[in-house]
Amino acid sequence: MARARTKHVCSECGHEALAWSGQCAGCGAWNTLLETAAESGRPRATAGGRGSGARRAARPTRLRDVEAPAERRLLTGIGEVDRVLGGGLVPGSVVLLGGAPGIGKSTITAMALGNLSGSGRRTLYVTGEESAAQVRMRAERLGEGALDVPVLAETDIGAVVATVESEAPEVCVVDSVQTMHSAELTSAPGSVAQVRQVTGALMEVGKRTGTALIIVGHVTKEGSVAGPRVLEHLVDCVLVFEGERERSYRTLRALKNRFGATSEVGVFEMRSGGLVEVEDPSARFVAEATGAPGSVVLVAMEGTRPLLVEVQALVAPTEVVPPRRVANGIDRNRLAMVIAVLSRHAGVQVGSADVFVNVAGGVRVDEPGADLAVALAIASARAGQALSDPEGRPLACFGEVGLTGELRQVGHPERRVAEARKFGLEPVIGPRTSERLGGLSAVDTLRAATRGALARGRRGGAAAEPFAEAA
Ligand SMILES: Nc1ncnc2c1ncn2[C@@H]1O[C@H](COP(=O)(O)OP(=O)(O)OP(=O)(O)O)[C@@H](O)[C@H]1O
Ligand SMILES: [Mg+2]
Description:
The protein is of the alpha/beta class.
C-alpha cells in the first residue's frame, strides 16, 4: 500500500504546505507548521462531513429524546482512584494519566486492570514501553489478579486499534501515548502531530466499541510541548500522578473531569507490593509532625476532604544577595507574598535570611488557605520558638493572608476545625467565621495570629536559638 500523503498545516493561520519549513509562508510565524494526515480522496460516509458541496440539513434532537443508557461506572477497585474519577470509569470515556518518569503510572494502571479483570471485566493492557515479559514481572509483584490481564506489546497504532476493535475490551490501558506511532505520519513518535493522531485514533475506536481508555503520558517538568498538554482538550478526564520519586507518598488528582469534580485527591504510598492507598493521610502526617521550631500543622482542604499536613520552615542567615526563597509543595509567589506581609504588617523581618518552606511528605497544597501556616512556620523558625502546647501537640491553623495584613476567610472552616479536633489539635488558629465555631481561635490579622501563636509556644513548646539579623 502506498504511504498516505501528509501535509503541514500552520497552527496560526491554517496555511497548508506539502513540506515542513521553519517559517510559515502564509503568515510568517516561526515553528508553527504541524504535520497532519492529508484527507483521503474518498468522500466521508457520515452526514455533515466535509464531503461534496450540497449537504443535507441534519435534524437536531431534543435532549430529552436523546437515548442515554443509565450511567454505569466501572470500578477499578482502588478506592482512591475511583474517588478521584468521580465514582469510577465511565464506559467509552478517555482518561489521560500523566506523571513524571518512574512515579508509578504503569503500576497503578496494572493494578486497576487486575482488579477489573478480577471482577469479570474484559481488559487489555497495551504496552509500547516495556516488553510483555517486563510487564509480567511487575504484575507478579502486584499479585494474582494482575496476571490475568491480556497484554499486547505493540507500538503501531493501526494494530492497536484493530486489536481493540476485535477484542472489544471494556477497559484498555495504552502505556504510553508517546511510544505509539501512526504510519500515516512521517514525524517521530512522541511529536505533537503523532501524539494527536494516536489519541484521535484511540478515541475514535473507544467511542465505537464503548471501551473506556486510560492513556498514559509522560510529563516533563515544564509540562512538555510534545507531551500530554496538547491532549488535555481532547480527552474527557486528565489525571496527574505527582510526588517526589525519593519519597514514598504519591498523590493522584484530576486536572479536568467531565464526569465529576476536579478537587478530589487520592494519596498513595509506594511499597514492594504496589501502590497502597493511604486511607487516613491526616493521621499519618500528624504523627510525623515534629512540633519543633518552624513546624506547624496546616488544615488544608483537598477537594471535599480536609487534610492535615505539616508545613516546615527554616530561616537561616546568608551572604547571598538576594537571599534564597525556596518553596516545596506551595507556590513560590505566595511564599514571596507571605514574607512581604509578615515583614510589613506583623513585624517579622527575614530580609537578610534564606527562607525555605516545605510541605512534609512530598504533598502539594494549592490553596490560599495555606498562607497562615506558611507565615506562622516562618515566624516560629525566625524566633526559634516551637508553637506546640505543653503536651507537645503541634499548632494547627488555616487562613488566607491579605495584602493589608488581614486574615481572610477560606472555604469549609467547620470541616477543617472538626478534622483538627479529631486529632486533638485545639484550638485551631483561623480567620473569623460568620458563626462561632467551637475549637476555633478566631483572629482578624496576621499580627494577632503571630503574637498568639508565639505566646502559646512560650507557654509550652521548646525554644531554640532565635535567628539573629546579620549586622
Ligand atoms: N520492589 C519494589 N519495591 C518498591 N518500589 C518499587 C519496587 N519496584 C519498583 N518500585 C517503584 O516503582 C516505580 C516504578 O513504577 P512504574 O514502572 O509504575 O512507573 P512509571 O510511572 O510507569 O514509570 P515510566 O515513566 O518509566 O513508565 C519506581 O520508581 C520504584 O519506586
Ligand atoms: Mg511505565
